[in-house]
């Protein structure tokens, strides 16, 4: 990534990135923007956890930590580096390693030449940011790969990767394929690959979410 773009982005933690335009203006990330979408299934899910005596916020934090570590392990593997796991519990490390093993199983059928790994990008045109899990040549095609440690691939994820594809396009990367790779946190979950059609209305949905997010910020002022 160009040095000028690097200067627009500052990382506060591994799990959170602050995105800034060239003039220093902070802009929201893709995940934050998609937070405006209604998610009725999450309400039912959280209620079911509550009925089991499980604190849903703590549960989410735990799964997020595992997902963050799994992403870091894969990124470090692709860079040829060793991951520092000192901040994580044994359970978190074990489950993250399961996800990495699922990735390695998927990799057996895919020759990967990474170009960008965990790369934060900013759109000056649409004024948002996002972090690319992996962009690289896979079996000769330029592919965007987004890793998910969830139990399934959901509609919101398809919108998310289309936004990432637009970020890459603005930075002059012409992507051939957009792939969501779900990698399980348990030994029996394995992996699931979904190739995403970006020539749909998903980008339009994202644009509307972006506008709603901006309007919500305006009315709060």
Walkthrough of the structure:
By secondary structure, this protein is an alpha+beta fold. The chain has a single domain (3-220), classed as Lambda Exonuclease, Chain A (Alpha-Beta Complex), CATH 3.90.320. Helix content is 44%, strand content 24%. It contains seven helices and eight strands, in the order αβββααααβββαββα. It has helices at 3-6, 30-33, 40-51, 56-79, 90-107, 155-170, 202-220, and strands at residues 9-11, 17-20, 26-27, 112-123, 128-138, 141-148, 177-183, 191-195. The strands form two sheets. Strands 4-5-6-7-8 form a five-stranded mixed β-sheet, sandwiched between helices. A three-stranded antiparallel β-sheet has the order 1-2-3, with no helix packed on it. A hairpin with a 5-residue loop joins β1 and β2 (17-20). The longest helix is centred in the N-terminal third of the chain and has 24 residues, at 56-79. It is globular and about 45 Å long. Mean pLDDT is 85; it is low at 1-15.
């Amino acid at each position: 990534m160009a040095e000028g773009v690097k200067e627009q982005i500052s990382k506060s933690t591994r799990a959170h990135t602050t995105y800034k335009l060239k003039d220093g203006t902070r802009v929201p990330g893709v995940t934050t923007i998609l937070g405006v979408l209604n998610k009725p299934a999450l309400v039912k899910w959280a209620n079911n956890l509550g009925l089991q005596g499980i604190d849903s916020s703590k549960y989410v934090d735990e799964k997020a930590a595992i997902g963050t570590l799994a992403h870091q392990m894969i990124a470090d593997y692709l860079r040829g580096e060793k991951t520092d796991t000192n901040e994580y519990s044994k359970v978190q490390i074990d489950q993250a390693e399961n996800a990495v093993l699922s990735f390695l199983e998927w990799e057996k059928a895919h020759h990967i030449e990474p170009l960008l790994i965990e790369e934060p990008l900013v759109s000056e045109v649409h004024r948002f940011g996002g972090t690319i899990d992996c962009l690289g040549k896979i079996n000769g095609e330029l592919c965007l790969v987004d890793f998910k440690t969830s139990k399934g691939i959901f509609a919101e994820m398809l919108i998310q990767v289309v936004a990432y594809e637009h970020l890459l396009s603005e930075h002059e990367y012409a992507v051939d394929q957009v792939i969501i790779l779900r990698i399980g946190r348990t030994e029996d979950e394995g992996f699931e690959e979904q190739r995403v059609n970006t020539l749909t209305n998903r980008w339009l949905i994202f644009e509307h979410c972006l506008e709603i997010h901006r309007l919500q910020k305006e009315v709060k002022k």
